[in-house]
Amino acid sequence: MSDLVGARVVAVHAHPDDEAITTGGTIATLSERGAEVTVVTCTLGEQGEVIGAPYQGLVRSDQLGGFRIAELEAALAHLGVRHGEFLGGVARWRDSGMQGDPANDHPSAFIHSGDTAVQQLAEVFDRVRPQLVITYGPDGGYGHPDHIRAHEITHAAVAGSSVQRVLWAVTGAADLRRGLDAIIEPPARWRRAAAGEIACQERVDLRLRLDDAAYAAKVRAFAAHATQLWVANGSVSRVNPEAAWARTADIEAAPLVYCLSNLIAQPLLRYEHFQLGWGTPFSAGACPMEGLSW
């Protein structure tokens, strides 16, 4: 199906892997339907931790950011994205880390990007002329300073642009609860999430079910980010040679299980969720592009 040929979308994300976690299936769906999707990544994700023993030296030597460029490129290819770029160029802005991290004080930390980052993103919008922009809500999804900053610069750059709608990627609370409940047995050494430990939103304006192709593309994108994401489907890589398996009771609620470096077992949901952040409204159950003109 190519009903979205001519449509243009920009997804603004803070770090490599964010595009896969919160919007991977949506990006794959829009790309498959003919939309031109551009992913703007604001930092290299230098402050991330590394899953798996072989590549721990990337963190010690401050080489993780460069390594993650290749992971991002592979993930975008799996999602059908032909246009990926770093805000202001490669390594212009650095991962700020969580609130209180010493990385907050780095002069190139994204939280210090000011009006320069707004102008850089506005230039992307002027060049691409997207109808739809996807980013995070005011809390950044889970409070990360770089995610909050991505929200701020996106809404500042939208002013005076051709953008017709801004969507905020969120995790829907109802689907998350169902997915967590469906995990019968997490992998060895992984742990279950404590109540309220995974950020989510009760309000969901758009709930997009991923078809098999989009879901498979999202899983492949997760696998590409092997330093950051571990899918419990038995797969291994040179970064993480250890296989993991999980058992779930409901393959619709939790087809697969994954974790970050914190080893908290999470459902790799069949659904992606959004709130309307700004612009043209849409009906329940709509396509993200519904009601937009191109």
From TrEMBL:
EC number: 3.5.1.103
Pfam families reported in the protein's UniProt record: PIG-L
One GO MF term attached to the UniProt entry: zinc ion binding
Reaction equations catalysed: 1D-myo-inositol 2-acetamido-2-deoxy-alpha-D-glucopyranoside + H2O = 1D-myo-inositol 2-amino-2-deoxy-alpha-D-glucopyranoside + acetate
InterPro entries tied to this protein: GlcNAc_PI_deacetylase-related, LmbE-like_dom_sf, Mycothiol_biosynthesis_MshB
GO biological process: mycothiol biosynthetic process
EC primary class: hydrolase
Annotated Zn(2+) binding sites: H15, D18, H147
UniProtKB keywords: Hydrolase, Metal-binding, Zinc
Coiled coil: none
Cofactor: Zn(2+)
Textual note on the cofactor: Binds 1 zinc ion per subunit.
Lineage top rank: taxon: Bacteria
Cited PANTHER family: 1D-MYO-INOSITOL 2-ACETAMIDO-2-DEOXY-ALPHA-D-GLUCOPYRANOSIDE DEACETYLASE, N-ACETYLGLUCOSAMINYL-PHOSPHATIDYLINOSITOL DE-N-ACETYLASE-RELATED
Job description of the protein: Catalyzes the deacetylation of 1D-myo-inositol 2-acetamido-2-deoxy-alpha-D-glucopyranoside (GlcNAc-Ins) in the mycothiol biosynthesis pathway.
Family the entry assigns: Belongs to the MshB deacetylase family.
Name of protein: 1D-myo-inositol 2-acetamido-2-deoxy-alpha-D-glucopyranoside deacetylase
Annotated organism of origin: Corynebacterium canis
Gene: mshB
